[in-house]
Amino acid sequence: MSRVGEDWIFLILLGLVMALVSFVMDFCIALLLQAQKWMYGGLDSNVILQYLAWVTYPVVLISFSAGFTHIVAPQAAGSGIPEMKTILRGVVLKEYLTLKTFVAKVVGLTCALGSGLPLGKEGPFVHIASLCAALLCKFMSFFGGIYENESRNIEMLAAACAVGVGCCFAAPIGGEKFLPCNTSNYFRQFYVREYLFLGNVHPIASGFGGALFVYLNRLIVQFMRKQKTINKFLMKKRLLYPALVTVLISTLSFPPGFGQFMAGQLTQKETLVSFFDNRTWTKQGMTEDFNYDIHSAAWKHPQANVFVILVIFIVMKFWMSALATTLPVPCGAFMPVFVIGAAFGRLVGESMAAWFPEGINTDGTIYPIVPGGYAVVGAAALSGAVTHTVSTAVIVFELTGQISHILPIMIAVILANAVAQSLQPSIYDSIIRIKKLPYLPELGWGHHEKYNIRVEDIMVRNVRYITLNSTYRDLHEILLIANLKTVALVESAESMILLGSIERAQLQALLSQHVGRERRLEFIRDAERKRVSVVSTPSSEEGGPKVNHEVRFQSSITPARPISPKPLKPALKRTSTAEKNIEIPTSNITHSLTYSSIEEWEEQQLDEQVNFNNCKIDPAPFQLVERTSLHKTHTIFSLLGLDHAYVTSIGRLIGVVSLRELRKAIEGSMTVKGVKVRPPLASFRDSGTSGTSSESEATELHKLWDRHSGLSIPREQQPNASDSDDKSQ
Q1: pTM for this one?
Q2: Sheet of 465-467, strands arranged across
Q3: β-strand 360-362 against 365-367: which pairing, if any?
Q4: Which of 24, 80, 135, 235 has the most neighbouring CB atoms within 10 Å?
Q5: Compositional bias of type Low complexity: which residue ranges (predicted)?
């Protein structure tokens, strides 16, 4: 049975499960798309009925997907890659890796893709694979071993992300390359900067187009959120917005209507097949007698040439895809962008075929124009620009089975990435910022502020710490800040020499062992034994027989009702009379202990010095010196996956910097490019050196300190996505 818990067994099971899930979903999606075509074709005698069927069918599917997702698991809406990037960063997001989310994601995505709207499945498949991995980890943990380790579960989730991409495109190598491109800023920027000098007009246009798509998508979301009246109305009528958007897109793509100018009757797969066709659609040169097949015929219109049709398709699909990806259903943006990029490449290829009908003559060799090759390059370039990944080139190789265009594809993807990264964040980072997920943003290029700003300018100086001479009362007070994950341990308050850090769970264990329920019950038993177990032996008259009058007062130390051992009862919290009867053992005599005596004992215990001998202490928490630059700090946090670091000066603890402060500084230093979340970074150095300004730079965690007036032993709380990066302070 121990062999069952090994890595290769887990990965085999994960691959098999995802293959089965992917096959079933693709089969159901194909049936739904075929049903729509069957309904549309069966009503060809009446255009009005055709329109009603064409519009009603996707409205029903999208509405069901949105409603089912909202009821079962709202976390299943959207792509899933932004949340997975955050989870792989070490942040715990509630309900994102549960069975309910898996069901909602699978059912909702199947209905959304079956509706025929311009939606993708790459991001949702990454999330689905991660859900399978998380559920398998829970199952494998029954066998013990490595799957009880949280860090190993993160590794399995990383492998699952690659499996999701591999299942989506049948591209295992591209899936493996997709993970570091999306989760590592350093990996991505390395390749982009190394090949920045390569490129041509086509990938530059794709880079601008990718940045424009991200901007348009974010603009739509922000517009809907800023309109409070519309937002409140749509919050009450949750299915109205998906239905209206679906009606709009379906109406414009209706084949007998405006859809005839944009091949509205083709699905995304059929559209890609026609774009990747090597034969040109223009009626010049070698294609004079070309007979259009069923897919290519959709691009032939008696009143417009192929160039007008492609331009209309690109423009319409561009804003339609940006709008459709804002729907509250499980969906991705990769495939719609991939199709738009292929259309742009096809447009360039057809233009080249029109300009050079006989091909290009180089050194006596004639090279014919292959429009399908341009479509492949355009698809890879635009999708890479939107997602900021270079792995799209590898995905295209595996998707098409051709590597003859490897050089132009790599050049196009890398250059499009360079242009897009200088203008906008990736679509996933944009969603992260919209949802305010705790993820470290990228550093922009050409910003000298990142070298001028130092850690001492952005760190939090009011650090909560404990010393070797701290009492249990100090532990109790420091734990009142519920979001603290680790606490710094220093030698003394005078020297501030950093000795290590202690996790919150360890401090809770120390406090519970010293003044917890077991210790209090032990004190009560000892005290009652002294007071209650009274033996008196009085004598009768002198010379008479001595009678042994032994009186034993038996007290009941059993609580009035059973107490669950799970929650830790507050040590000094003043409770009601009913709670006192539960916590304090009652006695059948009048000599029972009073509540004040227990409080007095607890006060004495809290004033005792802490014994750290049985506590696990991290002797080497990650430290930075105060003059470390923002650029170097960002690189270290990104490469090592840190969520906080202590700032020391010659071994003395002087501050702490977490993801919150680092993200705040990075977003503030970006004054022009990308998403401007905060105003330009002010002069931290002038205000940071004074002790009076440290309170203004303190995070919200430290502001919670004065709000807790009662004394109670805090319990471990599940972190939220919004404050998980503040726990280290």
Answers
A1: 0.70
A2: 465-467, 486-490, 498-503
A3: antiparallel
A4: 80
A5: 687-696
Helix, strand or coil for residue 501?
A: strand
CA–CA separation, 540 vs 204, rounded Å?
113
Are the CB atoms for 259 and 253 separated by under 8 Å? Answer: yes
> H-helix or E-strand containing 465?
strand 465-467
List, for residues 465-522, the tens digit of each pLDDT value.
888 888 888 888 888 875 778 888 998 888 899 989 888 888 888 888 888 778 778 8
Q: Which residues contact 331 (CB under 8 A, 6 or more apart)?
A: 78, 79, 109, 112, 113, 119, 120, 121, 123, 124, 324, 325
Q: Please give the backbone phi and psi of residue 88, each rounded to the nearest 5 degrees, phi first.
A: -65, -20
Residue 169 pLDDT: 79
Alpha helices by DSSP H, 170-227: 172-183, 185-194, 201-226
Q: How far apart are CA 30 and CA 222, in angstroms?
A: 34
Q: Which helix (H) or strand (E) holds 500?
A: strand 498-503
Top pLDDT among 404 and 255 is at 255
Cα Rg, the chain, nearest whole Å? 33
For residue 42, is pLDDT > 70? yes
- Residue where the block lists tokens 């203008």: 423
* Distance between CA atoms of residues 270 and 299, nearest Å: 12
Contact criterion met (CB below 8 Å) for 124 and 331: yes
User: Collapsing DSSP states into helix, strand and coil, what is residue 729?
Assistant: coil
Residue with tokens 């008196």: 536
Q: For 618, which DSSP code?
A: B
Residue 635's identity, in one-letter code, is T
CA–CA dist 502, 470 (Å, integer): 13
CA 173 → CA 14, 69, 333, 341, distances in Å? Answer: 17, 32, 21, 22
**For 657-667, how does the pLDDT look when each residue is reduced to its tens digit (9 = 90+)?**
888 888 777 76
Report residue 471: phi and psi, to 5°: -100, 170
SS3 state of residue 298: helix
In this structure, the number of other CB atoms found within 10 A of the CB of residue 436 comes to: 10
Q: CA 164 to CA 177: how far, in whole Å? A: 12
Tell me the pairing of strands 498-503 and 623-625.
unpaired
The whole-angstrom separation of Cα 76 and Cα 88 is 17
State how far the alpha carbon of 707 is from the alpha carbons of 65, 332, 457, 466, 613, in Å. 43, 43, 28, 20, 32
- Model pLDDT for residues 521-532, shown as the tens digit of each residue: 887 787 777 776
Q: And the tokens for 535?
A: 């033996």
E strand segments, 427-485: 465-467
C-alpha span between 18 and 270 (Å, rounded): 25
Q: State the Cα–Cα distance between residues 694 and 56, nearest whole angstrom.
A: 60
Cβ contacts of 188-195, under 8 Å, gap ≥ 24: 188/388, 188/389, 188/390, 188/417, 188/421, 189/421, 189/442, 191/390, 191/414, 191/417, 192/390, 192/414, 192/417, 192/418, 192/421, 193/418, 195/410, 195/411, 195/414, 195/415
d(Cα 25, Cα 33) in Å, to the nearest integer? 12
- Residue 91 to residue 110: CA distance in whole angstroms: 29
Q: How many helices (H) and strands (E) does the chain have?
A: 29, 8
CA angle 383, 385, 386 (to 5 degrees): 65
Identify whether the C-beta of residue 91 lies closer than 8 Å to the C-beta of residue 123: no
Three-state DSSP class for 646? strand
Q: Read off the pLDDT of residues 58-82 as tens digits, 9 standing for 90 and up.
A: 999 999 999 999 999 998 998 888 8
CA distance 488 to 136: 36
Cα angle at 138 between 132 and 139, to 5 degrees?
85
- Measured over the CA atoms of residue 79, residue 82, residue 86 and residue 88, the dihedral's sign is positive
CA 528 to CA 326: how far, in whole Å?
67
As beta bridge partners, residue 487 has 502
Residue 497 per-residue DSSP state: B
Which residue reads 């989760």 in tokens? Answer: 183
